[in-house]
Records
---
Amino acid sequence: MNVRRSAAVLAATVAIGTGTPAVAASPSPSPSLPSGLYGSSDPTYDGVWRQSLALIALYRVHAEPAAAAVDWLAGQQCESGAFPAFRANPAEACDAKLMVDTNSTAAAAQALSAVGGHGTAVTKAVTWLKSVQNKDGGWGYTPGGASDANSTSVVIGALMTQHNPVSTIRNGAKSPYDALLKLSLPCADGGAFAYQPDKKGKLTANADATAAAVVGALGQGMVSVKAGDKKNAACSDAARPTPKDAAANGSAYLAKAVAKDGHLTSALPGSENQPDYGNTADAVVALAAQGGTAAATGPLRWLERNSAKWAEQNGPAAYAQLILAAEAGGADPSDFGGTDLVKQLTATGPAPVTASQDDSDTSVWWMVGAGLAAGAGIGFLLSSRNKRKQP
């Protein structure tokens, strides 16, 4: 859910100036990839992000991941507390050439908090995030970059791991909620959230940003999101809107956007419009967080019928998004349109070790060896969701 823009897409867009980088799926993991990593595609731009989503999704369905998967993620952290999208050699200290970012750091903080046993690492990550908070109360993808709704929302999820009220995390007078409210549109413009203002300061409705910001404005994150109990009503402008007002309006925008076809639609320049599976999954989470499972029924059922091929092509992050959507929307992730999402996600990474009931050392160590040797990978086809206009 959460987050929503892949860190891979953002970094690749900056590096090569295109909006839709693609990575071909491979039938088996590359020998050069870390053994604890989920997925078989190049992790340069999304390793920490997809690993974090995978661990969070498994936590949400009470499935214990392999220790190797957790260790790999923990080993990506820099001494500062920040995480890069991918750190090829964890044995080497992070330097100025290694780009760290708020999205990877916030997602990893939530994942390590969920699996437990990494309290110091989580605290360091959150401390670093606080240190790069912008004066408007929000965060951009890179430290010091202009605040955006997606980054601010995923950081809110990380802040929740410390059990401190989000409203108290401030740079001067501004909190993360102030940053989100600044990016919310009035009902005359749909009540959505913008990703960022354009160069002239204009806000444009963005479904991806809206799905993220609804959850963030409700003070929730990928680990903590839960079904709400407020009906998704029509958009309503308040004289002095609160974060919850903005979340309700954003949810109303999403409900309207998926009402006709059951899904959100991507609108990339030069491409034919097509269903946006990832953003639809995130919209399900947002709709459920605001209005309960009934509010997410339409798009959730559409995903059950149509998302299997997309998830197979896109790998662990896609399976994780669907698991989060299913869990938030009240569906069964182990039988999602006939697909066991948990089994499919687990198959993209190191298999969890299952201890034998036999007390013999031989049996136990055979199981450990088998668990470490198992695992299959599938590719991750990057989809661009940065700053594009949504219906």
---
Amino acid sequence: MGLFRRGPKRDGRETPRDPEFSFFSTDEAALFRSQVRAAFAERGLEVTVYSDLVTDSAGRQFGLANLAAVCHNDDRGARVWGELVRQHAGMVLRTMDGPSALDTLPPAQIRAQLYPRVISGDSLDAQAFGYARSVAPGLYEILALDLPESVMMLTDEALEPLGPLHELRAQALGNLRQLPVEGRETVKDPEGMRFEVVMGDSFYTASRVLALDSVVQQVTGRRLGTDGALVAFPFRHQLAFHVIRDATVIPSLNAMASFAASGFEDTPGAISPYVYWWRDGTLTQLSDKDEGNVEAGGLRIVVGDDFQELLERLISPSRPDRPDRPDRPED
């Protein structure tokens, strides 16, 4: 998947769009949902298909948003949707109908396969995940069990017999720090804008923002400074960062804001369209939507007092090695 994605060319945007999944035309959405119904039927399960989910006679629900985004983003187009849908239906039913991994795996193996995940609050059941830790406005950290074909997000009830929460979280963070960097790319321009993008098939790539110090060390060979870094994690398979060292933070911030908004749109496992300031493990949101600002791509930069002080220090005339002062981002 490209860094600044463009989906495969199919029906033009001038064709009527599906109300639920606007990246599909109405004809494409009808094809997608018919393939979903057929895929479950092939496995002996009749389902009722709604706009964003399917249900079976037992009342079980299977969401379609991530699968629809996977199909939309596959560059091969609609000719492969049937196979993608069949693979997904098979995985879902094997997971739902088989014994729970919590009942079959020994405790030591469960702990070895435990990871933290950062997810949007939009998909969080607050009653089932009372332990979830807020990491930024609208974003939460939960614990997940990594399985061969799926990821099991663990509820309060599932965690209770596994041990104290602080010990489980420490184990999960330790496992996260041990993950390899599957892929990386540097985005830069001659004006000093630069940021690194870590990519991978792992469902925990974006969640590595929780262990950013170790990721920066792996990628750059240098430690994070006290000023921290800019970070963006638009969807689960991507984490971008710019280590703050000088005034190049300004063009990098503006570029990362566009990068995050583009990467978030219509992706499976979408997390956040915004850029954040990571400092001492705390995330402060720096970009936001501004539909009225067409020239800036519908984005605006929001700078609080602490970050403004940082910018002023980095571009201070007292620094002999300072670059020419870039344009100040919008407030």
---
Amino acid sequence: MTNGLDPVLPAGRTWRDWAVDAVLFCAAVFLGMVVLGVVEEQGELSGRVAELDPLLGLVTCLALWWRRRFPLAVALIGLPAVALSTSALPAGAVIVTNFALRLRWRQALLTLGAYVVCMVPSGLLLYGRGADLFVDAVFCLAYLLTTFAWGHALRSRRLLLQRLRVDAERARAEHERRLGDARRGERQAIAREMHDVLAHRVSLLSVHAGALAYRTRQAQAGAGPALDSAEVAESAEVIRGSAHEAVEELQEVLHLLRAEGDGEPVSLLPRIEDIDSLVADARATGQPVDFHPELTADAVHELRSQLHRTVYRVAQEGLTNARKHAPGAPVSVCLAGGPGRGLTVEVRNELPASSGTDEAIPGTGAGLTGLAERVRLDGGTLDHKVADGIFTLCARLPWSAR
């Protein structure tokens, strides 16, 4: 913007602005002619001033068309016209209101001061006498201060609306940012649940299928007895059951993620008591698991549902990792703690000296990362280390009752 315009106020002209400018121009011309006619009837204007009055009033009215883009220039053009022409008074009111609206406050006050200095003694120039100078001065001050106050009020209103608009845009942007964070958090939660559910079940499927493949290769090489139909049917039934359980658990996870509110049945959430089923599934694959639950049933019952699920996921991840990276190695799962002492979940397994001939079950490497985030959200810590050929996964959680 140019010529002293406040940068926060728009200077572009819309169709509404054209309509307003046209109405103001016509009103200024009409009211100026009325004022000029009244003054001429009274015969108060001096001869030379009376000849210039219509021309100065017309120039002032025409200047209104550029008042939006050049408020300071229009104010300076209108200054002598308003001081020397009675027909310019209606247009002058628009000009004073305009520079109070569009100029910065220092420029606006200086321009107002110039108008006061020029208009107060204008009675001597217009009428050639000073008898009514006090009345003219009071009229000029009232005329200028009223129009200036009106322009300042319009400016304050526009600035307030703009500030509210900016605040609304900022609030909308903040809402979009929070919504984006919520979406990212939801995607991370989905990824954690999918990994925890599918990785465990798929690892069980891989172990059973690997055992079938190994026995078949041994039989073909003459290094072992061939599988009979009963053994094949039993293995196929175990694989089918694990796949069916994986689908059911996946459906439960999706149901939880889609649910709204806090009224979700706790039965859909895994609980600490369900770790027995995890251990049973692991033992069914030939994985030696030693389970040490050192928690009383009453104490476990008082724990929050979210804490139940976290403890379950820690044990599940530990068993899954042991099955992937140390197949056949002994695993110990220990649960300990109580009110005031916190809750500890520890899974330990021996690391094999070599990977052997069997292929390892592939993993994404994101299980421990997601598990650490889950434990952190519950106010706990997750540690994992290797010492003396033993891998230890340990989660420490605060004891939080319902």
